[in-house]
Q: What sequence folds into this?
């Protein structure tokens, strides 16, 4: 038996930070599904494949070997045994990842991998389509949101801390484009599941969001 908490929301809504803290506090395994799409996007760049060469991108997704180690300092990501933790967050990957993740067959393959990662475990899984598509029967379903200005501000600050060189305007435009693309996908589009609880984080601190989510999970777990 596994216990599954699904957290969906747009880029910069706080999913990543909040999910890791909740996972640590409640002893859940944290699965960041964006990593799987970012790894495919990184490999597309490494192999110099054009974004319209869908067949080659699907081949990459079929053969990709991803390993994610949850550590107290964050996830360490290996792609074909090479540590790509930093590379998957680069400006170049961030620019193309939403488009790569829009390819239907890529989604089928990654969703399959994500379901396998959660098999028989107690997990908190974050993404865009966890509560609507990957685990529509998740035990707890949450949608995190925030205004686009607040999300861009947060992502800009986070990038600075990680030495990712992007201006605020670049971050804002990237988030806006990704929102549009993520919401209009044929499969796995970003949307609120009917039975998800929406938490607007615009005016909340990270601690307040973490507390809110822990309360929601505790009530459901009883
Ligand atoms: O959460 P993130 O920014 O690392 O996600 C990167 C991209 O991957 C995002 O633009 C949309 C896509 N994604 C998705 O389509 N479905 C998911 N479950 C997770 C991410």
A:
């Amino acid at each position: 038996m596994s216990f599954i908490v699904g957290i969906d929301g747009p880029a910069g809504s706080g999913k990543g930070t909040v999910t890791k803290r909740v996972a640590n506090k409640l002893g859940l395994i944290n699965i960041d599904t964006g990593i799987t799409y970012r790894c495919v996007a990184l490999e597309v760049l490494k192999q110099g494949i054009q974004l319209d060469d869908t067949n080659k991108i699907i081949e990459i997704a079929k053969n990709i070997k991803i390993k994610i180690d949850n550590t107290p300092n964050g996830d360490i990501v290996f792609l074909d045994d090479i540590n790509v933790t930093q590379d998957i967050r680069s400006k170049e990957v961030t620019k193309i990842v939403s488009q790569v993740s829009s390819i239907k067959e890529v989604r089928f393959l990654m969703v399959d991998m994500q379901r396998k990662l959660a098999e028989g475990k107690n997990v908190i899984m974050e993404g865009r389509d966890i509560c609507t598509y990957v685990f529509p029967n998740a035990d707890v379903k949450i949608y995190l949101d925030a205004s686009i200005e607040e999300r861009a501000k947060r992502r800009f600050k986070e990038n600075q801390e990680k030495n990712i060189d992007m201006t605020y305007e670049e971050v804002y435009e990237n988030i806006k484009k990704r929102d549009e693309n993520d919401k209009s996908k044929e499969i796995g589009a970003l949307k609120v599941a009917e039975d998800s609880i929406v938490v607007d984080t615009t005016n909340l601190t990270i601690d307040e969001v973490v507390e809110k989510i822990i309360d929601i999970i505790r009530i459901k777990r009883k």
Q: What stands out?
A: The pocket of 2'-deoxycytidine-5'-monophosphate is lined by residues 11, 33-34, 37-38, 97-98, 101, 127-129, 178, 182, 188 (CB under 6 Å). The chain has a mean pLDDT of 95. The chain has one domain: 3-221.
